Amino acid sequence: MLRLAILSLLANSDYSGYDLSKAFDASLTYVWAASQSQIYPELHKLEAKGLIEGVDVPQDGRPDKRLYRITDAGRDTLVEWADELPGTYAIRDRFQLTTINIGRLPPARARELVTGQRALLQQRHEVLAGIAELLESAGHRPGEPWNDQLGWRLTVEAGLRTSAAYVGWCDWALEQLDTSAAHRSRKHLPPIRP
Amino acid sequence: MLRLAILSLLANSDYSGYDLSKAFDASLTYVWAASQSQIYPELHKLEAKGLIEGVDVPQDGRPDKRLYRITDAGRDTLVEWADELPGTYAIRDRFQLTTINIGRLPPARARELVTGQRALLQQRHEVLAGIAELLESAGHRPGEPWNDQLGWRLTVEAGLRTSAAYVGWCDWALEQLDTSAAHRSRKHLPPIRP
DNA sequence: TTCGGCATGTAAGTGGTTACATGATTTC
DNA sequence: GAAATCATGTAACCACTTACATGCCGAA
Question: Among A60, A126, A166, B52, which has the minimal tally of Cβ within 10 Å of its Cβ?
């Protein structure tokens, strides 16, 4: 699916491999993570298929680069790939595997882990909020007439809502952990009565 | 991370490879998807490491099976693996790659895709709600004293909240698509004035 | 002079998917 | 008689990660 992600970016503007990698880290990571070392080989494959074309751009003061542009065939293929309704929705959330076993850890450590995850998600939410503002100031606001770019705003909103929900869950989970831990300590350390 | 997922299940009860695969499809899929063909080799690896041990159980009327049980070393390793705070949170949401490009599709098709995704997430939410009820009737309710299994309820709640948020997003997205599509048709088909 | 940024890559390894193979039993 | 369920697996392939290699520039 990396190809779909790359074409989605190249459909808006030209990129070098390096710039693509930056663009992934800056925004697309929140939907589809990709590492540098994946991107270069994928660009070669896309060019071999004629979906993008690269031009060598000499630069002075810094290394030359190869700028890629999407072709007409590339745009057609992008639409084809996007136009598939997936029959399943598979997630893999590493942190939830920890959560399942969180009761095997000491309460203090359990708290630490959830707090850490909360920070990650909170930060993600802030970055996405920034992107949403940028998009809005660039004219991508709800209610726009139908156009090619309209999907970006929707995707950012999905990220905002799911990360907000996740942060909310973290807070709820912390409360749960605290009450459960309290029950245990009450059992083990009953209050002293003079 | 599949090992973590498998050990998490085996920590609660014994399973054959086949049963594990079923258990994944029935519940863990919503956190960590795994296919049959992955599970068998992984079980061999875990047994070779001494984290689980298998016993051949002869059966009549159906093929013999090999039941796996977690070892003490396995429980220790499970806790070690669970006790890692991840520094990043990488998602890969295929549908959002479609969403980015949804403005390139005809409005009717765009609607169809979001509606399809909504159905998937709605179903996921219902299955998770069923699991939550099961857990609660089995005594896994919020406020329980600290225990090994307490994480399951938390994980199910995370699934409930994120899928609910996703369904909410789908509804919002459908509204957005409708208003954008309406703007377009108003442009192309201005109202007739006698 | 050392580090970070720009720019492009390779190699080795891990993780995961899809499809297939086998074979008995039960259900439609 | 065909299909689904139980049960275990293999093989080929694709996707992704981590680590490394190269080389030049500018800033601290």
Answer: A60
